[in-house]
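User: We ran a pulldown and think these components assemble together. Before we commit to crystallization trials, I'd like a predicted model of the whole complex to look at. Sequences follow.
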Amino acid sequence: MAKSSETFWTEDPAEGLRVMPGFQLSDRATDATPGFQGRKAEATAALAEGATILSGLQEKLFANSRSGDNRKILLVLQAMDTAGKGGIVRHVVSAVDPQGVDHYAFKAPTDEERAHDFLWRVRRHVPGAGMIGVFDRSHYEDVLIARVRHLAPPDEIEARYGAINAFEQELIDDDTTVIKVMLHLSFDVQKDRLAERLDRPEKYWKYNPGDVDERMLWPAYQDAYQVVFDRTQTEAAPWYVVPADKKWYARIAVQHLLIDALSRMNLDWPAATFDVAVEKARLAAT
Amino acid sequence: MAKSSETFWTEDPAEGLRVMPGFQLSDRATDATPGFQGRKAEATAALAEGATILSGLQEKLFANSRSGDNRKILLVLQAMDTAGKGGIVRHVVSAVDPQGVDHYAFKAPTDEERAHDFLWRVRRHVPGAGMIGVFDRSHYEDVLIARVRHLAPPDEIEARYGAINAFEQELIDDDTTVIKVMLHLSFDVQKDRLAERLDRPEKYWKYNPGDVDERMLWPAYQDAYQVVFDRTQTEAAPWYVVPADKKWYARIAVQHLLIDALSRMNLDWPAATFDVAVEKARLAAT
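Assistant: Here's a predicted model for the assembly, 572 residues in total across the polymer chains.
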């Protein structure tokens, strides 16, 4: 764990969440809380503490970009419906100054997007220097729903894994820290969460009949995720599988991954790019 | 004041801040706190209360967009350097779910942008349905710095006011509530704030020697703002001049303008666009 001021973790969760060679999704618990011994109340306190740390680190990242530091972060969020991608954005990413966040939610591709290579639309939303980019869904949909629903020929799907690795390597070469997160939810908890959306009128808008259609394909999606991990887990662009049955755990875990990535950058305030004494004199004369 | 749950205002500030026919910028105090009798401590409490209200209203706006409601908000922020645009984003806009915010900071136009009409780049960033768009600087730079620094021929500048009014009318016809805010700072307070940036190494990155160059043109900028108000104040796309010497006042005032705009929309949770009983049965069968 890079040095930071987080006090709630008993051990660094990152290594335990990270997908390593031989990883099997089906072996991973969806209700575990690796590295965290507290419960919801402690997680609430941890999230608040982490928000302050994250906000401070992000401001330094942003500040350095003004004097030429090209570094940026891309957080990729993938999951089955109701796993909590939106909650991560609302409760974790919201701690960061909106000026420093580039959030993009990928929907089904438009006709124009379909007329291009699958990475075309993704490239248009990669974060610039000093930014934290957040992809709510991503290019991985092109090997998840596309594979499960046969939206492209099998050889085209096969080719995409390599294309994704090459694309992410480009981002890394452009000083991007790539953090890929799969929120790992159980089939039963998804049912509970969908049922809640159908029970509460203020949640109807989050429900889509298509959610049940996708749910019926659950095993195929789990298989497709396993292939994603087998083919696109790289040292430079790691995947993290975050247990998501407990929303509070998933939030502090993803927050930690962001804090850890920023802490490893060893950010400090940038030096003045001007002569401070000269500028003080110029200002005094006005 | 539209009905809302805000409790800290003694009277609706919106009417007092709004630019009306005959408005003179030079008559407006920069250190007043119209509608608010408290001081900084009360403003902190008001900001926290308002954040909860704003967040709840925005979620309804967003939810309705999913079932075809086309409404959206565009907040335009204009000001002299150090007046607090960034603070508004960081402390007011940050209350809103990042998924519902479209923030864009306009810089000096690129070569590609310069090769097009001045509104070309602006159109690319207008908010979509359900979103709160925030422009940190805007098309008004094209009649502010462009006028003060003669970046375009006088007849071209003259033509832009009409183009801006037509453009904003288009946005309004597309169900956009347009809120234009000028943060009104005094010449002396700007000096203090620039001096602070030169005194504190963690603030150096916010300082640019060009800030003093612009400061030396202060009267010309005030005149250019006056022309903006004379020419682009409309009933449908009002300007609000918000005293900004006290940062805490400017923040709660802009927050109030957003809350007020959302309250006037009479938002409720959208009805289900599917048969709830049918969906419950489908889900139960999985």
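The radius of gyration of chain A is 20 Å. That may be worth checking against your pulldown data before setting up trials.

User: Thanks, that helps.
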